[in-house]
Amino acid sequence: MPSLPDMNTPEVADLARREADAHPAHPTVPQPDAGQEALFETLLRIGDSTLILGHRVSEWCGHSPALEEDIALANVALDLIGQTQLWLGLAGEVEGQGRSADDLAYLRDAWDFRNLLICERPNGDFGHTLMRQFLFDAWHHELLKGLAASSDPRVAEIAAKAGKEVAYHLERSSDLVVRLGDGTEESHRRMQEALDALWPYTGEMFLGDDKDADMAARGIAPDPASLRAGWDETLRHVLTEATLQIPEGDFAHKGGKQGIHTEHLGYILAEMQFLQRAYPGASW
Amino acid sequence: MYAQLVKSEGTKTREEMTPEELAFQERIDRGEKIEPKEWMPEGYRKTLIRQIGQHAHSEIVGQLPEGNWITRAPTLERKAILLAKVQDEAGHGLYLYSAAETLGVSRDELMELLHAGKMKYSSIFNYPTLTWADMGAVGWLVDGAAIMNQVPLQRTSYGPYSRAMIRICKEESFHQRQGYAIMMKMAQGTPAQKRMAQDALNRLWYPALMMFGPSDKDSVHSAQSMAWKIKMNTNDELRQKFVDQTVPQAEYLGLTVPDPNLKWNEEKGGYDFSEPDWSEFYDVLAGNGPCNKDRLGARVKAWEDGAWFREGLMAHAEKAAARRAQAAE
Amino acid sequence: MSKEWPLWEVFIRGQHGLNHRHVGSLHAPDAEMAIMNARDVYTRRNEGVSIWVVPSAQITASSPSDKGPLFEPSNSKVYRHPTFFDIPEEVGHM
Ligand SMILES: [Fe+2]
Ligand SMILES: [Fe+2]
Ligand SMILES: [Fe+2]
Fold first, then answer.
1. What ligand is nearest to the CA atom of residue B94?
2. SS3 at position B212
3. ipTM for the complex?
4. A68·C26 Cβ contact <8 A
């Protein structure tokens, strides 16, 4: 392979140095202590998940198969957006850099997002959306039960409020999964396909890292693995009634909680953040 | 309005009316409400189905231009407000379809008529929403114009329609106010935001005036509908009222209404203003507005893609009922 | 056209202690879903504490021509209304 001498000329190196001097890197910001950082991270994981899923669900508004469903699904999206405001609001407070929930939602790039990958999966057909909602709700419900007992009262308070909303989300999505699974041949097939397609995105919900371990040790958030039993129980119950097969495999796509996302998130953000990015500093 | 150019059936004079028809008209004149299953002239029933159906279609097609910005709303709060607003419109559609159903037509039938292009929806929703300021202008002008029409319709003679309008009007005032709040932010914002706000007003002003429909002071259809109290004011009356209410609101925002002929007329106690381009209005009604194909296409797609879902739920309900019946034996 | 979801009438108790009141209708495949849909459609602004749904087809209504015979007799029983009785003001609120 021929070398690329012009990339390495002293002039270029010099140019780069001068350019770098003209634009100093961001002044070093004071780092919160490790414990606060883990809490910040945990709050992003929850708040980003509700944000991105709420965004996805809101895409249905005006396009659902029946007016009643359109209204019901918008209620779910509204709850999730409301919860996002609380979780990201608290995240900003914990971070202590003066960032608001909106700053966090609209001014971070994909690699700083911490949502579960399942939340950013495209909507697919209505059955796919409902199955994603059910799998998420069943986990979300367990998570909030754990968070409601948090040693951090701010976390416990938000979880208690969100928990009531999510209990209803789960009731509704379970019901629809049962009905469509045990409906027509076509609805059954579509629900099974959705379950199979989404299954590899569920394992991530229960994978912990050192930040999760730290949160669990301090009683702030439950250990992700501990949510599995309750989730499994809900799934067994609902999917059996729905006459759907729980997939065998246990392969899990992961990375969302660490900021390594699917290609879809970039497009969600490009759309969601458009105005804030195109008109920096404007107030809306 | 949301129901533009609704053809009225029958335009009889009192002398031509049968005793039944006359008694019916007298009930309406006394301000009585007509309730489902009561005797009514066939023309009254048909006209109402057409009008309420068109109104309902307008609500759900009207979700689309605003729905266009839900995923791009600039803050979490704006996103929630807009989503709640567009969701309300689905509710309005639902209430109105229910009112129409009391007249012996099913919601699915009305949907099919919409999708086949055999029933119309308001011309306004065939215009695009191009910037965020359009979310302000639509709430302010389009919901504002709709309210002008809907407030008097709360007193309409048909009970279910009147009750639907009462519920809708309660929800509508939030719509117009959230729109105006967006406009205030924009008008007081950066130069780019002000430009967006003015641009939105420029594009939506005349389409908003068209919402009231062409002048109908000489229309026999309108006269009949007014006699039946399913139309409460002439199109011109409502348009005038709308202009008189809206111009000071535009002034407050520091925006210019795009009409060089706009002038306060002391004598009539209202503004003189330019007529919209009615040839454009008829083009839009004929299907040639900027978004007709997209709007109807989106509704048809939602309906067709959702068929398996509606059928699946119905099949389950029937299975479950059969199982319950068997268990009871 | 496939089979349409049936129509339901929705009644909501706005506050504890009050009667259920008819608020409107909606479509749903069965009663359970009608209740859920009613919650989503008719209580978006905290309007209710309890919901009833009834299949619209199951409602039996008095026929409008009965209006005379059904309701007019009670017109004559004016004594059923509290304003029928004159109570002296000194007695206080009653
Ligand atoms: Fe509306
Ligand atoms: Fe509205
Ligand atoms: Fe409306």
1. 1
2. coil
3. 0.95
4. yes
